[in-house]
Structure prediction request, 123 residues.
Amino acid sequence: QVQLVESGGGLVQAGDSLRLSCAASGLTGSNYDMGWFRQAPGKEREFVAAIRWNSNTYYVDSVKGRFAISRDNAKNTVYLQMNSLKPDDTAVYYCAADKRASYYWRHLEYDYWGQGTQVTVSS
Prediction:
């Protein structure tokens, strides 16, 4: 049974940093794409970043240069380092996994999801 558990969210001020973690269990093999998505109240779920099975990384334009996704295969954990946070980054952040997603930026591609962690950035 696959389980993804996010942690690291919280309330911070604009300009601060946070690091989100996603601990995965039950994923067999290493050929998984891991993604971070976010959803603000009244908005659709939005792609934030992905690290693919081959370690290539991708970001939505609004976070490029501020966020960094990484993975530690030994710990089965994916991280999202978020720097220079802005109020517009406020959302529930979700970790997702899929075996070689065809379209890694589409949330419907991912089979497995965590419960989400709230990130609130005050101005």
Observations:
- The chain has a mean pLDDT of 95.
- DSSP finds no helices and eleven strands in the chain.
- The two ends are 40 Å apart (CA to CA).
